[in-house]
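We now fix the convention by which a protein and its fold are recorded. The integers have meaning only within a learned vocabulary of local backbone shapes. A complete example follows; check for yourself that the lines match position by position.
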Amino acid sequence: MAKQELSFLSDRGLRLLLFGGKGGVGKTTAATATALYQAELDPARTTLVVSTDPAHSLADSFDQPIGDEITPIAEVPNLFALEMDAARGLKDFNRQHGQVLKTIADRGTYFDQEDIASFFDLSLPGLDELMAVIEIAGIVRDGQYDLVILDTAPTGHTLRLLALPRLMEEWLRVLDLMLQKHRYMASVLGRYRPDETDAFLESLSGDLRRLRLLLSDGKTTEFIPVTIPEAMSIEETSRLLDALTRFPVRTRTMIVNRVMPPSECPFCAARREGQRGRLEEIERRFPAWEKVWVHLLPEEVRGKQALRRYARAMLGQSEQWPEPGPGAPPFTTPSVGQAQITSLGPQQLVLFGGKGGVGKTTMAAASAIHLARASQDGRTLLFSTDPAHSLSDSLSQEIGNRITPIAGVEGLFALEIESTELLEELRQTYLAEIRQVFDAFLGRALDAPFDRKVMEELISLTPPGLDELMALIKIMEFMDEGQFDRYVLDLAPTGHALRFLEMPHLVRQWMIAFFRLLLKYQGVVSLTRVAMLLREKSKQLRRVEQLLVDAERCQFVAVAIPEAMVVLETERLLQRLAGLSIASRWLVVNLVVPSTACAFCSAVQSGQQRHLETLAALAPHLIQVPLFAHEVRGVTELEKVARIVYGDGDGDG
């Protein structure tokens, strides 16, 4: 591969680099390799690499402990790393500003201190990630480091992160509305004197303003999308770049990972041929972007030596791997058992989760096809709540936000739930009743327009993630109506999947707190419809909680690949699932390289063997799925995967 001149590596004016893309395409590797390259290129410049993904991988990538404090990277004195603990940042924020928030609400509403405290505590999840980004902006602004590199979460949640400043501005507007009443009354009685509440709002507004300026400054900030030559990744990259046009963030360079090098090995050659059309598609669909073509390496990119090799590959300096000599024996696939999922039992809900890029969507879709085929007259629904949907790409059929029958598979339906629309329905119901009530009571006991504005805007203070849970509530409604017999859920990557599974209890508590706030206005206004709706949603969430921990009705199937970083994340995932009392008996290990005499394949297999043995100890049942020479896409290819995972018997699934 020819030597590549890369603008984001040579532009010394850049202060902030953000790496993003579909889960599993190599964002963390690209971010950490870039950080190491920049630090070693100029020892006089300091570099900080930061992760905001709830499932951090920086420590795994550098192969050293990091954590939530800025940590020097061993043997590289000008390189530092930080895995931000967003939850701790939120606790710090509440400790510093909790009393000010309560004072603002106390001045501008009928609520008492206890209600205010519970409501604000429950309305702030998601603020944790925003505070993390504000902290990063502060680090850049203060010039503590010459370059800050941000390793973001997978696509859907990265876009939410970029949207958080706007959501936070709405939140601040609600707080300012609460203060308007107090300011007005104070000015009528004398003269209003700004105090700590005004200072708090101004300080946070300033932080948001500076964050917007930083992100929109193309001279100092750049977003680098990372992709691989596969259809699902290309489609998600296209959606990511379209969505980025809504944000003032410069993007001019694209990293394309896992490009197969030339090889005499039939398996490697078949993979390279399969990529040819996708590489041409990347050139055709993204002509405005500078491309960084990175060859697939035969070893895992973990530790500084491997990161240096990856950086050389980015620069087009790939190393040559020798072919095996005459008579070299083929490396056999590790034998840790060839189990199959013989039965998922009577489970009503099956969830598929794991680290980004391991094949969760593929396994979920293949399993849904198997369940539909195995059921004589039943109906199976395959659905996704990940903001970055992939079911349409996996099934090679347009699905979208409607229940869609899957062509060629009787009894199978799919749905990519646009959960924001469900939340908007709740919001519009609330606003309609608020306006109706205030129109009827205008001029009576209410302090219009202040109370009306505050009550209208309260619905803005919803916990981020509520929209995705509204999707699960929708599925619960389907269950109540008996629309389907089985439900298969394709989850977001690990960090946000765990957050999603932990959210039902938190959001139910928020709904209860919100319901109590509405009751405070009882006697002044009557919000019967909204109160009844919240009560019903709260009951449904309680039943979601009960379903998730019912091993007879719900099963989590973990998906992994035999790589060190994935093994570590899978182990953490299974531990967290056990803590949440969510049953998980099956572990599917995907992309196991088949046996060949190729030196490249043998190098990969050698590392995979160790990890397969480790993974086998993590779950009662381990299923291996080989790496295919071509993409697994469409019903026919997914059925091949289903036969490997479930065997040839029809059974009951």
